[in-house]
Specification:
The chain has 319 residues and is mostly beta strands. Helix content is 2%, strand content 42%. It has one helix at 4-8; strands at residues 13-15, 26-29, 34-47, 59-63, 66-70, 73-74, 79-80, 84-87, 92-95, 106-108, 115-117, 127-130, 135-138, 149-152, 157-160, 168-171, 176-179, 186-187, 190-194, 197-201, 204-205, 215-218, 223-226, 237-238, 247-250, 255-259, 264-269, 278-283, 286-290, 304-315. The strands form 8 sheets. It has a 6-stranded mixed sheet, with no helix packed on it.
Length: 319
């Protein structure tokens, strides 16, 4: 049998490093006394740190190394909260409370540029923004923003997908204005992108209530329909801080898909299928889901799962 050196032209290196630099690289990690390899993964989920308390209908934003979970409800009969928590890729830490209690709301932006708007259980469409230190109330939408989703940040955001309004809403940093409705009025969608390049995925049709696989896109002035989601639909989660050409989407309770701007691919499965969970991510290569409800029945979750794809470091074992 040929040796590694005969195949690769070089011996396995000894490095005081837990991560490599090139895909396919094998080395001996002298700091941890382990053999490592830089492998490639099309996408997989792994357990992350648990939320401080179980939460469903919480809103998520940002990414795995710096994630945000806001609002939501606890218990079989949700009791909405104003609590927020930040994630460092390992554990959740309590952050300042919002200016009101809410759930099922739009949230987008990285942590210090977050806008949280609409939602249920608050004065009609109450909204606020976060600067990394404290929350500031902003003008309300003026109606119950149940299940609304958003793309962008506190300077410029685009909101759509609320159950009680088919209209879309632009936020310019100081006020909301209405925009045209999407081709089909869905709710419980996933939102990805920016205020003028936003995709709204899946959800349920308000008329009839059927699960939708529509991929509806806003370009800043009008709507188009892109390639439909091949499986799933219904209650949706996504890498909401990602570009619309490089995202992952939770297609149903377990199946994960990625979109590269032209086609869909199936890449992994959540270990615990859930709906109405907080989620975030900056690309199709990373992100998280936290909390949510795991049907059947009311089974409010505390767990976080992290999504990774691309070049990853693995430990070589004999099993």
């Amino acid at each position: 049998m040929a040796t590694y050196k005969e195949i690769q032209g070089t011996a396995v290196q000894s490095l005081a490093s837990s991560t490599g630099t090139n895909r396919g690289q094998i080395w001996y990690d002298t700091a941890n006394n382990l053999f490592k390899v830089q492998a490639f993964s099309s996408g997989a989920w792994a357990s992350g740190g648990s939320l401080p308390t179980p939460s469903s209908a919480n809103s998520g934003s940002a990414s795995t190394p710096a994630g945000f979970s806001m609002g939501g409800g606890t218990g079989p009969v949700p009791s909405y909260v104003s609590a927020t928590n930040t994630y460092d890729g390992t554990s959740w830490t309590a952050a300042p409370a919002m200016t009101f209690s809410s759930a099922y709301a739009a949230a987008c932006g990285i942590i210090p540029t977050t806008i949280y708007a609409g939602g249920d259980g608050n004065p009609p469409g109450a909204s606020n923004t976060y600067d990394g230190t404290s929350w500031t109330g902003i003008p309300a939408l003026g109606f119950d923003g149940y299940q609304m989703k958003g793309a962008g940040n506190k300077a410029n955001a685009f909101l759509w997908g609320g159950y009680y309004s088919s209209s879309a809403y632009n936020w310019n940093g100081s006020s909301f204005s209405t925009s045209p409705a999407a081709p089909q009025h869905n709710y419980n969608v996933a939102a990805v992108g920016t205020h003028d390049d936003a995709s709204f995925l899946g959800g349920y049709a308000v008329s009839g209530g059927s699960a939708s696989t529509l991929h509806q896109h806003w370009n800043g002035s009008g709507w188009t329909t892109r390639t439909a989601i091949p499986v799933g639909g219904g209650a949706s989660m996504s890498s909401n801080n990602a570009p619309t050409s490089n995202l992952w989407y939770q297609a149903d309770k377990t199946t994960t898909l990625t979109w590269d701007g032209s086609s869909w691919a199936t890449v992994g499965s959540l270990s615990t299928g859930r709906v109405n969970a907080g989620s975030g991510g900056s690309s199709s290569a990373e992100g998280f889901v936290c909390g949510g409800n795991a049907p059947p029945g009311s089974n409010v979750q505390i767990a976080t799962e992290e999504f990774t794809a691309g070049v990853i470091t693995k430990t070589i074992t004999t099993s």
